[in-house]
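Tokenised fold entry reproduced for everyone:
>
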Amino acid sequence: MNIFVSGATGFIGSHLIKQLLKLGHSITVNLRPGKETSFNSNVKTHTLGKGDIESDIDFFRREDFDGIIHLASLYITNHKSYEVSDLIDSNVKFGSYLLECASKASVNWFINTGTFWQNYQDEDYSPVNLYAATKQAFESIMQFYSETNQIKTCTLRLSDTFGQNDPRPKIFSLWERIAKSGETLPMSQGEQIIDINHISNVVHAFITLAGHLQNEPWNIKSGAVYALNAEKRYSLKELSIIFERVMETKLNIAWGDLDYREREVMVPWSKGVSIPDYFPVVTIEEGLKELKWKY
């Protein structure tokens, strides 16, 4: 396949690109101005918006992409007022620009990335924060393109993810720090349910979905929303016990010293549809064992 990827330099994107290259696909990534990439010479780069939109549409026509995997987004948990424009520009405006180019250039398919945070309290739609609301807004825009153009679109909504070389300040990074330092970490009661997937499962999900869109498009309804659920969910406290056992370490956690956050997600979205023929390839224990070598 010949695929254009946005957000390729992020945690998920960098792992996805490596696997796509291993499988022999041709990859072009969007590279923001001033952004450097460590990808090898087999990965082409292009900067959208450097010229006018017609020049980008012409570029898409020349490259004749089969599909687009759209990972780029701006994530802010609790936004400040001055960050509203940045959230809309990154999560709504840029994706719309990309869809316009793709549809005008007759690209066959478009995979968007959503979040379980669009489904607070397991609702069909209730945004945890403005970030989640902008992700939902883009899905609505995508529906317009799906209904008025031949491009087939779909969304893969993700919950928590982890894996090697993750620069994000996620829960396993915090626990790694206190395991090494011996410090005490104040946390909530730990009753919230965590749905977390190793990066290998995330990459496998995107590739499985792209394969359907390319080779068996009848399996995917345009505009469909899919969920990547973990094979098993755990409370945060149960997850810490698994971490301690696999890592052979002790976490000094002061459970209950912090209040739950406003709009804390206690139960992740459970109503999502699974990708046809998808199966997880790495368990949480296997994923943690990979991280163990960091200690």
User: Anything to note?
Assistant: The first helix runs from residue 11 to 22. The chain has two domains: 2-162+196-227, 171-194+231-268+281-292. The radius of gyration is 20 Å.
